[in-house]
Specification:
12 helices, 2 strands, mainly alpha
């Protein structure tokens, strides 16, 4: 009996090309019309989503800039009233450790904005917002399983670097209750990071692109239309995920290769588990353990309150250098191991596009979106 974990690689190759038995012209025309309609509705949904998201982001940034300018004007006015020169604006040092409080606020606000826009789109499309990756079965189990594997994967990588004398632990920076304080704060911060990155790239965008491309999948192979649409959408969202990391000054070429593998890992987690929770847990634990627990750079950045002071030793290709463990070639087999673990994970279904539980009018979400009547 074929193992279910191999279904991804055994179904997609057979789906490239039309069915052996050619469909009738009428059936082919219906498929083509369905494909066009899904692309149209998904396209409009994406445009509305991007427009709302961009408007809110512009409004938040504009409000922040306004109050920041007002605060600066107040400082200058107070200095002039006292007959003293105003203090110069201090630019943030890009090489300074990340401030945990600022990271929590920034990532928390970002996730709140994404969640708000998704709730608005769910209302427009008459769906539950959990269809965009935050639903599924066994949510807590998936989250904590992903978190456990994130800790194990980073421990395996750091243990390998330590045994090969590629990383040196110089000093312990936190002691006593400060370990719990900084550790808890950073855990919250990296939870927000995991929520933002997973939901931004593999939440509403992934769901809507896959919904629109399912029609194309039906033209290629109706039996595997959902899988074809999902993986074509994955190419687009993974490209966006990769492009977002290119601008990160702390990444080198190997780091970008690992970004690609990491994106594949998180998409595969969505495919296998039916939700984003495994990926969110893994993402949080991976970042938290390397940044706080081991005190090594995360994509070239250190964090405030890390537990150890460390430095890389030897060839940067092996140690990761200033990039951190994610810049080490030894990270590749660790990510591949995590991917293999996912193939052994029990498969759960993805959220359906139209069901009675998620759409007010079954099979008519697209018609409801455009105010059309169902034709029997």
């Amino acid at each position: 009996m074929q193992h279910p974990s191999l279904s991804l690689f055994t179904t997609i190759p057979r789906s490239i090309g039309l069915m052996h038995r050619s469909p009738s012209p009428d059936r082919l025309l219906k498929r083509l019309c369905s494909c066009r309609r899904r692309r149209r509705t998904a396209g409009w949904s994406l445009l509305i989503y991007i427009a709302i998201l961009a408007s809110i982001v512009a409004g938040v940034n504009g409000t922040h800039a306004y109050f920041k300018a007002r605060a600066r004007q107040a400082e200058v006015a107070a200095a002039q009233a006292a007959g003293k020169p105003a203090l110069p604006v201090v630019k943030r040092d890009e090489n300074a450790p990340m401030v945990v409080r600022e990271a929590i606020a920034e990532e928390g606000i970002s996730f709140a904005v994404l969640l708000l826009v998704s709730l608005l789109m769910a209302a427009i499309e008459r769906r539950r917002f959990t269809a965009y990756g935050l639903g599924g079965t066994r949510i807590f189990s998936r989250f904590f399983t992903g978190m456990l594997w994130g800790l194990v994967a980073m421990a395996l990588l750091m243990g390998t670097l330590r045994v090969l004398h590629l990383v040196s632990f110089d000093a312990q920076l936190d002691h006593g209750w400060s370990i719990a304080g900084w550790g808890g704060a950073q855990l919250l911060g990296f939870l927000c990071v995991g929520l933002v990155e997973e939901y931004l790239f593999r939440g509403y965008l992934q769901f809507t692109l896959a919904r629109g491309l399912e029609g194309l999948g039906k033209l290629i192979n109706p039996a595997h239309a959902r899988a074809i649409g999902f993986w074509i959408a994955t190419v687009i969202t993974s490209g966006l995920f990769f492009a977002a990391h290119i601008s990160n000054g702390g990444e080198d070429w190997l780091g970008l290769v690992l970004v690609f593998l990491g994106g594949l890992l998180f998409v595969l987690a969505l495919w296998r588990t039916g939700s984003l929770w495994w990926g969110i847990g893994f993402h949080m634990a991976w970042d938290w353990s390397q940044s706080f627990l081991y005190g090594v750079p995360d994509s070239g950045a250190l964090v405030q309150g890390r537990m150890f002071a460390t430095h890389a030793v030897g060839n940067p290709l092996l140690s990761g250098g200033t990039v951190g463990p994610e810049g080490s070639v030894l990270c590749v087999p660790v990510i591949l191991l995590a991917i293999a673990v996912l193939f052994r994970t029990r498969k759960s279904p993805l959220p359906p596009f139209e069901t009675k539980g998620q759409v007010a009018m079954p099979h008519d979400a697209d018609a409801a979106f455009f105010g059309e009547k169902r034709r029997g």
